[in-house]
Design goal:
Blueprint (H helix, E strand, L loop, with lengths): L1 E9 L2 E7 L10 H8 L9 E6 L6 E7 L4 E2 L3 H13 L6 E6 L2 E8 L2 E5 L4 E11 L2 E9 L3 E6 L8 H9 L10 E7 L5 E7 L4 E3 L3 H13 L7 E4 L5 E9 L2 E10 L1 E9 L1
Parallel strand pairs: 2-3, 4-6, 11-12, 13-15
Antiparallel strand pairs: 1-2, 1-18, 3-4, 4-5, 6-7, 7-8, 8-17, 9-10, 10-11, 12-13, 13-14, 15-16, 16-17
Length: about 270
């Protein structure tokens, strides 16, 4: 059986999307998901997204990393799903999306999409890790998925693959693991970010929930003011906004691009 797909990207974080409202996608075949996402033998992407029926929202977004594992949420992926859902008549420009992390809202603004994220939880602003004798100071927040945030003076000096992998698998974050972000605050009040993404197990060009985590952590610590521009490895700008509260933040939004690459069919 052939099924249609769309390939899209948000700040060069790329995804393969399927309209699975009829439930025909081989969901339980994780090897097929890995095959679809494979760079050299499949379509190639960092994530696979299914648009499914929802009883409480315009649609349900199921998200899988390229290793076939399901994740709770993806900010860049959700923007792509929102744009595709609008273009395919599944939802209007303003919509609600059901995710494993909770319900979110989205607004399609041409090639840019604004997301109202789930409420950030599990804040830790003064964490410390022992990495084989090296002490690492970090902050942590769950913006739909778990994120460690490490402030650094110069992103060029960070060995993202090595340090990111060590933190991602650290016993303090077992068994789910964590995404790991390294951020640099610029003089103009913006943030530059590099992210090691679990499930991809490598540095990613951009991470929407990671950009959100960095923006919120930086604002909580008084290093920046919201809204804040967050610049990703891809060179794209994501805008994080929200209202800080005594116990966290509310009305958190993430705004950024959602672009088409190509579409086609694949045998399953």
């Amino acid at each position: 059986m052939k099924i249609k797909f769309w390939k899209m990207h948000g700040a060069q974080n790329d995804f393969i999307l399927f309209d699975d409202r009829l439930g025909t996608f081989p969901l339980e075949d994780r090897s097929f998901i890995k095959h679809v996402a494979a760079r050299h033998s499949g379509i190639g992407a960092e994530g696979v997204i299914l648009i499914q029926k929802s009883a409480e929202s315009d649609f349900l977004m199921k998200f899988f990393n390229s290793d076939g594992g399901e994740a709770e949420m993806c900010g860049n992926g959700a923007r792509c799903a929102a744009r595709l859902a609008f273009e395919q008549g599944i939802a209007t420009k303003e919509m609600t999306i059901e995710t494993v992390a909770g319900q979110i809202r989205a607004e399609v603004l041409d090639n840019v999409v604004r997301l109202w994220m789930t409420s950030p939880i599990d804040w830790r602003l003064d964490g410390s890790l022992d990495l084989d004798g090296m002490n690492l100071t970090y902050s942590f927040v769950n913006t739909g998925v778990p994120h460690v945030v490490v402030r650094t003076g110069d992103l060029r000096d960070v060995v993202v693959e090595d340090v990111g992998a060590a933190v991602r698998r650290h016993r303090d974050f077992a068994t789910a693991g964590t995404n790991v972000n390294f951020m640099q605050i610029s003089q103009d009040g913006g943030i530059s970010v590099r992210t090691y993404e679990r499930g991809v197990e490598a540095e990613t060009p951009a991470c929407g929930t990671g950009a959100t985590a960095c923006g919120l952590i930086a604002a909580k610590n008084g290093w920046v003011k919201l809204p804040v521009n967050v610049y990703t490895l891809s060179g794209d700008c994501l805008v994080v906004n929200g209202e800080l509260t005594e116990d966290g933040a509310r009305d958190v939004t993430l705004t950024g691009p959602a672009e088409h690459v190509f579409e086609g069919t694949i045998e399953c």
